[in-house]
Amino acid sequence: MYKNDKVIRRYSEPFKLKILDEFTTGKLYGINQTTINEWIKKYNRKDLMNTRIKVETKDEITRIKELQKEIKQLKELL
What we know:
This protein has about 80 residues and is mainly alpha-helical. It has three helices and two strands, in the order ββααα.
């Protein structure tokens, strides 16, 4: 199925519910956030409303830790 040369993905009901159940664990499936929000509304999962998922790579986590360490060292100098 194509719409304006884009593939339209269809997901089964059990798959959608599985994604919503695992949503809070932070698992990523490469599904657009807008689609997830539509499922949240469709299945009345108010417990997932306004849930934010923070995606960080290992490099980003390492860099954040380095910066936090540097900030701590700079504060100790003051």
